[in-house]
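Hi R.,

Here's the chain you asked about this morning:
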Amino acid sequence: MLTVRDVMSAAVVTISPDATARQLARLLADEEISGVPVVDDNGALMGVVSATDLVRLAAEDADVHVASSALPSDRAVFPDPDGDEEPDPDPYGFFLPEDSPFSGERLLDEFTESKLDAVLVSEIMTPVAFSVGPDDSVKELADFLVRGRIHRAVVVVGERLQGIVSSADVLRAVAEGRLV
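And here is the predicted structure, written out as tokens:
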């Protein structure tokens, strides 16, 4: 039987509840991950926070906009009135090549003062009420993720964080034929 221990990541990136939303955004971007456990100074697990929480925070602001200076000048954002150029199918850079001069990181730097600096991770995190154990089966894990409509679970023994496991880890096990 494949267990959570077999598919989890034990090297867990974490964040403090006292970090700002901007620090969270920077961490997620730098580590190329979508969520992290929140731990206190003693390493006790307090909750989880994700990119979705940052999107929800931004959506609360009625006046959210992208500064025109953040958009690259060499991209055709709107269709050419003469019809000489094709309209850009990705005007806001959601599917940019890796070497693009326009990135989410640049947007973080573009806005020097914002709500991202005033909101703490503890204010937007989801407190951990449920977790999985390292000896739980991957099938139990998959059921847990589906029932909870979540993409990651913290792996805990007692009250100590042991790792993190995501829906992508379950998919990887399926693709590799390890899940029977």
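One quick note: The radius of gyration is 20 Å.

Cheers,
M.
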